Amino acid sequence: MTSSALYTDHYELTMVEAAMQAGTASRRSIFELFPRRLPTGRRYGVVAGVGRAMEALEHFRFRDEELAFLREEQIVSAEVLDWLADYRFTGSIWGYPEGELYFPGSPLMVVEGGFAEACVLETVMLSIYNYDSAVASAGSRMTLMAGDRPCIEMGARRMHEEAAVAAARAAYIAGFASTSNLEAGRRHGIPTAGTAAHSFTLLHETEREAFEAQLRTQGKGTTLLVDTYSISDAVRTAVELAGPELGAVRIDSGDLAITAREVREQLDALGATKTRILVTSDLDEWQIGALAAAPVDGYGVGTNLVIGSGHPTCGFVYKLVARALTDGPDAELLPVAKTSANKSTRGGRKYAVRRLDERGIAEAEVVGVGSRPESDHNDRPLLVELVTDGKVLAGEDLEAARRRHWDSLAELPRAARKMSQGDPVIPTLYESDYE
Amino acid sequence: MTSSALYTDHYELTMVEAAMQAGTASRRSIFELFPRRLPTGRRYGVVAGVGRAMEALEHFRFRDEELAFLREEQIVSAEVLDWLADYRFTGSIWGYPEGELYFPGSPLMVVEGGFAEACVLETVMLSIYNYDSAVASAGSRMTLMAGDRPCIEMGARRMHEEAAVAAARAAYIAGFASTSNLEAGRRHGIPTAGTAAHSFTLLHETEREAFEAQLRTQGKGTTLLVDTYSISDAVRTAVELAGPELGAVRIDSGDLAITAREVREQLDALGATKTRILVTSDLDEWQIGALAAAPVDGYGVGTNLVIGSGHPTCGFVYKLVARALTDGPDAELLPVAKTSANKSTRGGRKYAVRRLDERGIAEAEVVGVGSRPESDHNDRPLLVELVTDGKVLAGEDLEAARRRHWDSLAELPRAARKMSQGDPVIPTLYESDYE
What we know:
alpha/beta, glycosyltransferase (chains A, B), homodimer, seven-stranded antiparallel β-sheet, 36% helix, phosphoprotein (chains A, B), six-stranded parallel β-sheet, Nic_PRibTrfase_pncB (chains A, B), TIM Barrel, Nic_PRibTrfase-Fam (chains A, B), 435 residues, nicotinate phosphoribosyltransferase
């Protein structure tokens, strides 16, 4: 990443300008990134993007080319340009760690700093959290439905090329086994996978020639795509050429449940009892669930993953919830909130815990407003320190995020596993100092 | 952009590997990028991403860091690594120009080259076209409904940070007047706009103080956000401070039609008859249409634009449609197609024209298969040469794309303007040499 500084809405800089002139730019402030609600019908959400957000924070630097643009377009004054040129976030950030689950009102990120330095982070933080968490939240439902069968992410072609890399990363956090996306492999170390498309079969005179060419370079453990012409012909040819060591066949069209059964019977009859069956073709969590009883060994998921299975954004917002009454680092914080119709906010600094019952099953998301929720309950704290006095504390750890996702999911009541539309599986309770 | 080479699915490189060993890698081939259908209910689509795709093609270079990854992960052999290190696309590409409209089956991009060199472009081309065209297609319906009133793109916060820049670009092609996205301003020269968020009001002791601070730096022509607390109080304060020269007020919540009427009456009563009213808050094409009779002067559109108003991807595919029978540049081309259930393709090189009636109104999208449609009709050719023998012919021209969008839209039958669900507004007709 070069600079993330202009992933920023124009109005953030005009606010900095006005606040500087008004003398309020460095007033101590708390911004909060949170969901007002879950996407309709969803039982839980999955936090992703934290590692990317921290990287963006470290690259939030206004270099000559960014400053030149702002100067030429006269977006801010010389005074603000000087301030931007020296910009380093000096505040602190607490947040839900990557892979954690969330519910309506979960304070996913709590940013404390001067008004201006925290204000300018709004857009880039929202961009990252809103997309990455949308994909992870959809992906989690898919891996839940897939059970022990691996899911392969292959949606790059259906989404913006850089968003696709983020999607592969988010899917991996949500339990996907691998991705087709080479840049995601290079950048994030996610295992990559892939063998051949229909075009490879069509390039050759016969399907047999195409299979021979693929087997020659990739070995018998490869996956042969068997639905370019007749599936039963292709399966017969595949086993004839590779024998029972053939790794897998892929089916990309038709009624997958029926076809998988037919192909399984044919493979078994031909002695290829260990050859696996992979299915692709517009899968989503419901389709995967519907294939649970079919003899399928793995799912390739594309479009519906990268578009968040109907919810391509989480609708997170980033709001000022408290600010100092006066200047200076020790000034008392005043909770602030807007009262706009159907978009009001809840003022005050937030803390959050997941309340568990005696068996360790989640009962509620408890949000303390103004102070930590105090109780003799079995409460698991949710906020960790991500940034202290401008220093990013933790690097990206996708394996830890993957484990956290499974662990947090295991904690939820069983209703979380329902794919039908419903309410959040646990309620959000507020414990406020101000009410 | 540094390198676009790894915005590529793993299987494309394994296909290159197998084709090289089989001796078929350089066989002359035609790939086609096309939509099987429009999103459900849509009447037309808008092509966007062409300029970005050409830039990605020029940056499709495997440098040391990309090659090192492929080598370490043993994704391809040393022979293929050498081939990739020298990769330069040497073929030719024809396509619909940016801003043009499309219909089911429109051959949006026709790529001619060796199999391997054309095959590896699949993912990056699809990523760009699928997202950018999804946003432009949604944006076009919004500007259509907005009529003479300007639309401002402000969706960055709800979509991946780089996708958001592409969205601002696509929206501009579709007639949006400006964007909040500073990086889109810097990179693509799109006008940027923005004034203040609720946090700026909340930062100050009173709304009056916040307005005073904003007016001091931005002048009376600015836009004041009036729904942090009571709208009528805010409007009164705003006009008190700025007088009738106040540029605009923004309303971001509540029932926008009713509120806009109340605010208009109040502004007029206060003598601020020239002060404009901007509305934001989850607008889409239907909401904009519903506000046509309200005294609104501009629309800020965010979420629903960047997620394609329910259709965040176009579902374009990239398929081999013809290949040489033998090696060599002059070998005869054979149409090829897969017959997969519900996903079959139509083999053969495509040409396309928009057939117009005697008044210049579009009647049909006519696709010639194997040769140009020939007729004594009033046919407007749709394919332009984008790349010749590896050389990209045209740079990005967003103003031309904007004009093309309006001109092509003006050519459509009036039913194109219906926001209700319906069929494509013109049929796609095939004229085939092979049938």
